[in-house]
Amino acid sequence: MMFLEKGDLHFVLDVLAGLGKLYVPAESNGITRFVPYGGEKTQVWLQTNTAISPKEILFPATETLYRYETGRGKETVKPVADHHAPLILFGIRSCDLQAITCLDDVFLDGEFVDELYRERRETATIIALSCAKAGPHCFCQSMGLDPLAHRQSDLQMYDYDQYYGLEANSDRGRLLLETLEKHDLLSVSGRENPVPALEFALEVETEGITEKLTGMFEHPLWEEVASKCLNCGICTYLCPACHCFDISEKLDNAHCGSKIRCWDSCMFSGYTRMAGGHNPRPGKRERVRERFMHKLCYFPQRYGKYLCTGCGRCLAKCPVGLEITKIMELVKEVENDA
Amino acid sequence: MMKQLIAQMQEIARELLETGIVQTVIGWEKGSRWYLSPPVFVRKPEDAGRLWYDQFAVPNLSGYLLDYRNKNEKVAVFVKGCDSRSVVRLIQDNQVRKENIVAIGVPCAGMRDQSAVNDEKEPHELPLLSKCLQCRYPNPVYADRTVGEAVVDKSLNVPDDLDAGTGLMGGDLTGDGSYVSSGIVERLEGLSSDDRYDFWQKAFSKCLRCYACRNVCPACSCRECIMDSEHSLWVGKGSSPTENMFNALIRAYHVAGRCTTCGECERVCPVGIPLMALNQFLGQEVNKLLEAYDAGIDETLKPPLEMYGWPDFDGLFRCAKGVRA
Fold first, then answer.
1. Is residue B62 part of a domain?
2. Is residue A187 part of a domain?
3. What is the extent of the structural domain holding A309?
4. Inter-chain CB proximity B271 and A232 less than 8 Å
5. Residue B94 DSSP code
6. Which of B4, B7, B51, B46 is nearest to B26 (CA)?
7. In contact, B29 and B50? CB cutoff 8 Å
8. B125 and B236: one domain?
9. Between chains, do B39 and A320 touch, taking CB under 8 Å as contact?
10. ipTM of the complex
11. How many CA within 13 A on the CB side of residue A201?
């Protein structure tokens, strides 16, 4: 393991910024999120996880797919310019990295590859950061994650008091370490402090939940928990793993415009509204059910992992306290006659 | 004291459900942490024991009544002073039928600010929510029943121990569009129009378009929101400061003079946009241009923007003499 003095972090970030487009967790415009590193004026935020997840870097809330022009019998379609400097994501926590692996499953695996996602993801080097303490809404451990490390990072940083310990998990990570060594920023003489186990305010038992949910599609529980849901999109938009989108147009005028892709949410009525007006998920019950079924049942069945990584953002911000941890407890408790 | 009050709330709920006067009681329950008291829907008398009330029962439950507007179901809802104004609002807008609602007024000494929690496990003192520092109606202005010392009282009534201040929210204008603002309206008005525009651009650049502000609002009662209408060319689905601002301004205009200042839109905003500044500003404009009006106090008094009467304050009907409302 190599070590880096915490006081030297800004030098490291400066070096990284020279290697690609560097994103760091920071306080910006009154909220914490991952922003392009802009030198010392960037207020790097390393206390807890960010309020807005890093998913927006790999999968932006709104992106243009192509521009088009029509008229006088001529149609032209212009792809958006290639904009892909290599990405470096610094300070990604285990929960958010796990969520990125979920996005990878959806956008990269199987028959259909999402080119826009792939272009970004393939260039991305991920520098993970261990958590020094669990936030008030964190429950990643219950979801089977290690808050101290995630093996799918390129470079793992451990938070040791005065130092960061650095360990490479991939060739990209090793290359970064070499570069930082060349800049004389690393030493072998740090201390590998034993990190005490994190204390979580929230714990939940997930054992067997996918199997149980398989038979609960028509369970009255959904009616019960859906009553208080507002059907807003906070949970899905703050979720690092939710990945639904919608494609629509942005018109400049009658003849030209662009095709855009935006985040969408299973909480919205328009999400499943069909061309003829029929909506197979007409109410809160169906929408709330879908969200939890997708995260805890369908996704694990398809990809072998939960689509919830215990980051706690939905718990922190749900206006009515509809907590996924509570739902998991309820699912465990209720009788299932189906 | 609180125990007694809660027991009384549970008793009323049990009675209403047992006698079949209502099929659902909407109240608060004890949350997963000491500082959380989220909404709960009680449908069976034996579940009435779940009801709970304390200084964290922040959510205004009256917006849920909109879910019952097409149902022939009777619902009881617990209301604090500020929440009760939203019920009046809904009745005035014909969104709910008075006879289908049992509003139960609860006393309120102000709700506490969860954002100041620094110990997850051990309960500790918390400051009042900034909106409660500006409380003007601590008693329900409308209720069919009351519990504890709550009395139905429509008069302006600033609690003794509170500083009524000037704006709705406490705090400081940070210039970056983040959560703000004692007298935010006055302070924004003091800015040059460029600076003010810049402030709102920054604020709305972080809007996620999650529509929590709309969905929680008891005055946002359109059956289909223009923002959800797929063929409206007014606003696209993409998130950009302009479109986000359009969304917020449409909402602010729609609730102008009808907003009961419950502050829920601002409370639920996950990115901290000071939405109440807009609502407050428009409320003040309505008061200035038309008549002094406090929304949701008296169900017999129509909001100024819902009346077309003489005198013709703004000259709207100058060309239509003889047309009287």
1. yes
2. no
3. 209-333
4. no
5. T
6. B51
7. yes
8. no
9. yes
10. 0.93
11. 18
* Separation of alpha carbons A315 and A137, rounded Å: 6
Least Cα separation, residue A335 to chain B (angstroms): 17
For chain A, how big is the Rg over CA atoms in Å?
22
State whether residue B64 sits within 8 Å of chain A by CB: yes
Q: Do residue B239 and residue A262 have CB atoms under 8 angstroms apart?
A: yes
Sign, CA dihedral A105-A106-A109-A115, equals: negative
What's the number of domains chain A is made of?
2
CB atoms A62 and B178 under 8 Å:
no
Q: In chain B, which stretches have pLDDT less than 50? A: 162-181, 319-325
Strands B75-79 and B101-105: parallel
Residue A216 lies in a domain: yes
Look at A30 and B272 and tell me if their CB atoms are within 8 Å: yes
What are the b/e assignments for A209-225, b being 16+ CB within 10 Å?
Answer: bbebbeebeebebbebb
Q: In this structure, how many other beta carbons lie within 10 angstroms of the beta carbon of residue B171?
A: 14
Query: A230-281: per-residue pLDDT in tens?
Result: 999 999 999 999 999 999 888 888 889 999 999 999 999 989 988 888 999 9
Residue A288, judged by CB atoms within 10 A of its CB (0-12, 13-18, 19+), counts as buried
- A311 or A71: which leads in pLDDT: A311
Q: Write the residue in B33, B41, B59 that is nearest to A227 by C-beta.
A: B41
B46-56 as b/e: b if 16+ CB within 10 A? ebbebbbbbbb
Q: Pick the more confident residue, A141 or A110.
A: A141
Distance CA B211, CA B241 (A): 15
- Residue A273, judged by CB atoms within 10 A of its CB (0-12, 13-18, 19+), counts as middle
Q: In angstroms, what separates the C-alpha of A199 from chain B's closest C-alpha? A: 11
Instruction: Show Cβ contacts of residue B260 under 8 Å, excluding neighbours closer than 6 positions.
Output: B82, B85, B86, B88, B89, B218, B219, B295, B296
Nearest Cα residue in chain A from B43: A224
Within this chain, do residues B255 and B197 fall inside the same structural domain, yes or no? yes
